[in-house]
Each structure stands twice: as structure tokens, then as C-alpha cells.
Write a structure and sequence with these properties.
Elements: E1 3-7, H1 15-26, E2 31-34, H2 44-47, E3 51-53, H3 62-65, H4 73-78, E4 87-92, E5 106-111, H5 122-126, H6 133-153, E6 159-162, H7 165-175, E7 179-181, E8 203-206, H8 215-225, E9 229-232, H9 238-244, E10 249-253, H10 257-266, E11 270-272, H11 280-287, E12 292-295, E13 327-330, H12 335-348, H13 354-361, H14 366-380
Parallel strand pairs: 1-2, 1-4, 2-3, 4-5, 5-6, 6-7, 8-9, 9-10, 11-12, 12-13
Helix pairs in contact: 8-12, 11-13
């Protein structure tokens, strides 16, 4: 069979690209289609494929400001030619799911989320003090059209696979479509406790510095607490975050994977202040044996076992958890609520055992994901062997 992999853009190795890497290993001869590719920014496994880009690749300024071209992305994905391909496997959080399959071809979509920019997080991206007023007004004008296009093109997908039950509900709400759930992977062979490492005095964030990540909430909380906080990552909010942070907060920028390992190994706890569709970094921290302090909404409800005192009856404890608890939740998106969670964590810090925390994370291991996705594709496309 002739197979096309489709991914929104190839500009860095984040959680979505780790999933794409598995698809690339399963189908080493597949062609890879994307809106934009910045060579050297993704892994050799991904870049070993034939990569086909859209006209966005040639637009001035797209390399650094590709998100500003959001209104052009529908046209860009629809300009790509999938004639002759028997299977499209898209991994989508923006427009990849709108790839047009050839007549008689199958389209499976591994959906990270319906396009958050135009649905529930529109105001976070365009009306939270981070965007120019002209950008906000332009996006408000085009938003209804983008929403209609997003719903209409969801019908091009034969079967959706959601990354979490949280996203499964969003797919149903936005598209009216049913979906299956296969959780993304954490590489437990790489993210594991370092021999001889000691826990330091700092807390840790590893994240893109984008508005919806709510790193600002953590900065304000740790400004008040005065505790050391290390922040790994870059993004459009970096200048603003640095401008409001006090000296106890250290911005480390982009680090190598090995440097990030060292940061995980030495942190008291991992801070996760936003609402994520899944959230791979809390699992990386848990694979390192480190507890998580998280806002109790979104994907973390499926990956973190909360301390009983921060559990709420409406929260469903993750199935088959091997740990008594792996973290602490806070339930209001405010610096004050996060401060209280950190202080509560201090009181019970001695209870967190690295070994069962890691055992819990290993339920989401890379091999498990590869086997599940391979089996799923084989069931949906019986003539295909992974």
C-alpha cells in the first residue's frame, strides 16, 4: 500500500513529534506531508522520510512566525496532492486532519485536539494581553469561517483516535464524531532515575512558553512563595514572563534532552499549571520518579494519581494505577490556589516514593503505544501489515 503521513508542521520535537516518530518507524517507506519543515529541528527518524511541504514553506517570515499564517493554513493543507495514496495517517492539532484522501483511500486521524486556537482557547491566544489588537480583531472576524471549515473537513476522516478521554469529549463536542482513545507514549528507557542523582531545592517547569500553558500563573505563584523555580523552554511569552519574574525564578531556555533529564532528576516536584489535552511532560517527570503539582483539569486527570486530600469526587482515578498517589492537584486557575498546593505538597513530600511513581508512568511506555497503534491500524486496514 502507498501510505502518506500528515503532520501540521515540523519545527521542533515536542509530544506530537514523538508520536509521529513512532508512525515513521512503523512505515519507513511512507511519504510525509506537512505545511512547513525547518530542517534539523526534528529527529533523524522523521527526516529520513521524503518530506513534502505546502506553499507556506516559501512565504517570507513563515519560519519564525508560521502561526500568524493560520487563516492560510486551510488552503495550504488542501493544496497538497494525495492522489494515488491508499492510506492517510494524519497526526493533527490544527489542519492536518483536513487532508483530502483519494477516492477509495482510507484516512485515520490521530487527533491531539480539535484546533484549540479557534475553539475553547481562542481568548487565551488572541485576547489575553499577548496579541496586538489588530490581530485579535482580524482573528475574531475569520474565526466563524474557520470553525465551519474545521467541522466540515472533519468528515474527511474515516476514524478518529483521540489522545485522551478529555480530547475524545472535545472531538464529540466540536465535530459530532465518535473516537477511540490511545494514550501517547513516554520513553521510559530514556526518562528514568539517574544513578547517584540527588533531589535539589527547586521546582521545575518544562514547557513551550505559549499563552495557553499558563506559565504566568506559576511565575506569579512562585514570586509570592519565593521558592526556586527553573523554567525550561522557549516561546512567544518568554519576554513577558521574564519581565514579571523575580530573581528566584530562572529561565534556562531550550536545553538538550540530556540536560532536561538532569533537571527532572533534581527537582522537588514538577509544576504543571495549564489545561492540556494530554500533557507528556508530567509523565516524563513521573517516569523519573518525581511527583507532579498540577491544575486538576484536562489530561492530567488520566495520568496523575492525586493525593487524597486534593482529590475531588468527580475526578476519576486513572485505571490500574500502581501508585498510591503521584502528585497534588489544585482546582482554581489562580496563583493563590497553586501556592496552597505547593504548601500542601511540602507537608506530605516525604510520602512520595519514586519507585511506584515511575511504575505508574511506565503504563504509558513507548513500546505499549507502538503496539497499540500498530494493532489499531491493522484492525482498521486489514490488508496492511505494520
Amino acid at each position: 500500500m502507498k501510505i502518506a503521513l500528515v503532520h501540521d508542521w515540523l519545527t521542533g520535537m515536542r509530544g506530537g513529534e514523538k508520536c509521529l516518530e513512532v508512525f515513521c518507524r512503523l512505515f519507513p517507506q511512507a511519504d510525509l506531508f506537512t505545511l512547513l519543515h525547518l530542517p534539523g529541528r526534528v529527529s533523524p527518524v522523521i527526516e529520513s522520510h521524503r518530506i513534502v511541504t505546502s506553499f507556506l514553506q516559501r512565504l517570507p517570515g513563515a519560519e519564525n512566525n508560521y502561526r500568524n499564517f493560520l487563516p492560510l493554513m486551510p488552503a495550504a493543507i488542501e493544496s497538497l496532492d494525495f492522489r494515488g495514496y491508499d492510506l492517510i495517517l494524519s497526526s493533527s492539532h490544527c489542519v492536518a486532519k483536513a487532508a483530502k484522501a483519494d477516492r477509495g483511500a482510507k484516512h485515520l486521524c490521530y487527533c491531539f485536539t480539535p484546533m484549540r486556537y479557534i475553539w475553547d482557547q481562542f481568548d487565551v491566544y488572541f485576547n489575553a494581553g499577548y496579541s496586538k489588537k489588530s490581530v485579535y480583531l482580524a482573528m475574531r472576524a475569520v474565526r466563524p469561517w474557520l470553525q465551519k471549515w474545521d467541522v466540515r473537513t472533519s468528515r474527511r476522516v474515516d476514524r478518529f483516535v483521540a489522545i485522551s478521554r478529555f480530547v475524545q469529549k472535545r472531538i464529540k463536542n466540536c465535530y459530532g464524531r465518535e473516537s477511540d482513545v490511545i494514550y501517547p507514549p513516554v520513553d521510559g528507557n530514556f526518562f528514568k532515575p539517574l544513578p547517584g542523582s540527588k533531589v535539589g531545592d527547586y521546582f521545575l517547569i518544562v514547557s513551550a512558553l505559549a499563552p495557553y500553558k499558563r506559565i504566568d500563573l506559576a511565575v506569579e505563584a512562585f514570586n509570592e512563595l519565593g521558592y526556586p523555580l527553573k523554567i525550561v523552554g522557549r516561546g512567544p511569552n518568554e519576554p513577558y514572563l521574564k519581565s514579571i519574574a523575580r530573581p528566584n525564578i530562572e529561565f534556562l531556555g531550550g536545553l538538550t534532552d540530556e540536560e532536561i533529564l538532569s533537571c527532572y532528576a533534581g527537582c522537588r516536584a514538577f509544576i504543571f499549571p495549564g489545561v492540556e489535552d494530554f500533557g507528556i511532560t508530567p509523565l516524563e517527570a513521573q517516569a523519573m520518579g518525581r511527583p507532579v503539582i498540577a491544575f486538576g483539569q484536562g489530561g492530567v486527570l488520566e495520568t496523575v494519581v492525586p493525593d487524597p486530600e486534593t482529590w475531588k469526587p468527580e475526578i476519576e482515578i486513572p485505571e490500574n494505577s500502581g501508585a498510591r498517589h503521584t502528585g497534588v492537584f489544585f482546582h482554581e486557575a489562580t496563583p493563590e490556589s497553586l501556592c496552597l498546593a505547593v504548601k500542601h505538597f511540602e507537608k506530605i513530600e516525604y510520602r512520595f516514593d519514586p519507585e511506584p511513581i515511575r511504575a505508574h508512568a511506565m503504563q504509558f511506555d513507548l513500546e505499549r503505544f507502538s503496539n497499540q497503534i500498530s494493532q489499531y491500524i491493522g484492525e482498521q486496514v486489514p490488508s496492511l501489515r505494520c
